[in-house]
């Protein structure tokens, strides 16, 4: 059964958290969603983890600040650095002990890198594996939208200008009518050759629940981040990186540079897929996640399980 709770952060932001599995599971998988999305984007992975591992693996997902069912925030905190701090806070509140595998899509993967950079001791003590899905450690270095350099520069200028305007719109949400009109653009930008209409509806719904401040505010930080050096210092952690060869936002060179910086990374390139691999290619994402979890479980000391009468849920 899924347990829903909130984590209240030091600046007053409330994060919506969903947890399945026992607090004393052998391992916890923490799923971090992408920019303008929310925790629902991992529904295929949550279902598969429950089926495959039962009570051995606890699954935690949460909506980032300004996204989904989490509260909005001050504009100055719309940064990847803050998201890295938020991840540390969620772990302390929801998973105060035990080892974790961190799974990040797009901005979620960048959040994991920022957490490793800003909280190295915390990261080293807790992290047993990493899965990077359609993400980058180099900001917008490789983002060309599949277009010519000249058109890419124009789009980036328009996007940056528009982001600045949206960031000043506070907690307002995008109008549903506008998002319905933009569905063809969302489909082109985020998906590859195949796309289930239900996935488009889910993504559109997620964008509709993101505040305009978060849609615009995080853009500058996402474009500027560079964390290859952080990855190179992570040692021999089991890791995986997946990317679609039709990804217009984080194309294959993004995943290739992650794998080069962190040599333990198993790289998977999915033909015909775009940016939403968790939905477009759930089998490949599930297989890569399972491979990392299996390696982490093989090296984890087994803990004696408590009886239901004595087990206590983690505090939120």
Automatic annotation (TrEMBL):
<dbReference type="Pfam" id="PF12697">
    <property type="entry name" value="Abhydrolase_6"/>
</dbReference>
<dbReference type="InterPro" id="IPR029058">
    <property type="entry name" value="AB_hydrolase_fold"/>
</dbReference>
<feature type="domain" description="AB hydrolase-1">
    <location>
        <begin position="30"/>
        <end position="288"/>
    </location>
</feature>
<protein>
    <submittedName>
        <fullName>Pimeloyl-ACP methyl ester carboxylesterase</fullName>
    </submittedName>
</protein>
<dbReference type="GO" id="GO:0003824">
    <property type="term" value="F:catalytic activity"/>
</dbReference>
<dbReference type="InterPro" id="IPR050266">
    <property type="entry name" value="AB_hydrolase_sf"/>
</dbReference>
<dbReference type="GO" id="GO:0016020">
    <property type="term" value="C:membrane"/>
</dbReference>
<dbReference type="InterPro" id="IPR000639">
    <property type="entry name" value="Epox_hydrolase-like"/>
</dbReference>
<dbReference type="InterPro" id="IPR000073">
    <property type="entry name" value="AB_hydrolase_1"/>
</dbReference>
């Amino acid at each position: 059964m899924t347990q829903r709770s909130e984590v209240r952060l030091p600046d007053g932001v409330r994060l919506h958290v969903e947890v399945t599995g026992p607090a004393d599971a052998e391992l916890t998988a923490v799923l971090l969603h992408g920019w303008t999305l929310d925790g629902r984007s991992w529904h295929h992975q949550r279902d598969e983890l429950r089926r495959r591992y039962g009570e051995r693996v606890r699954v935690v997902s949460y909506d980032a600040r300004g996204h989904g069912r989490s509260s909005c925030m001050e504009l100055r905190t719309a940064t990847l650095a803050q998201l890295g701090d938020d991840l540390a806070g969620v772990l302390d509140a929801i998973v105060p002990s035990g080892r974790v595998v961190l799974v990040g899509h797009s901005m979620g993967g960048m959040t994991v890198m920022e957490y490793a950079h800003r909280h190295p001791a915390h990261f080293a003590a807790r992290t047993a594996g990493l899965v990077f899905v359609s993400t980058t450690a180099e900001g917008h270095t490789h983002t060309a939208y599949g277009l010519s350099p000249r058109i890419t520069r124009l789009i980036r200028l328009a996007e940056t200008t528009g982001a600045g305007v949206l960031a000043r719109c506070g907690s307002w949400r995008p109008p549903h009518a506008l998002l319905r009109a933009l569905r063809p653009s969302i489909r082109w930008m985020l998906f590859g050759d195949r796309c289930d209409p239900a996935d488009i509806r889910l993504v559109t719904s997620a964008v509709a629940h993101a505040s305009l401040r978060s849609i615009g505010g995080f853009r500058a930080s996402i474009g500027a981040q560079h964390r290859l050096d952080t990855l190179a210092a992570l040692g021999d952690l089991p890791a995986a990186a997946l990317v679609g060869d039709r990804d217009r936002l984080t194309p294959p060179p993004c995943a290739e540079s992650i794998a080069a910086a962190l040599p333990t990374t198993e790289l998977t390139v999915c033909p015909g897929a775009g940016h939403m691999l968790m939905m477009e290619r759930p089998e490949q994402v599930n297989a890569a996640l399972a491979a990392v979890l299996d390696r982490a479980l093989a090296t984890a000391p087994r803990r004696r399980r408590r009886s239901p009468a004595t087990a206590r849920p983690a505090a939120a």
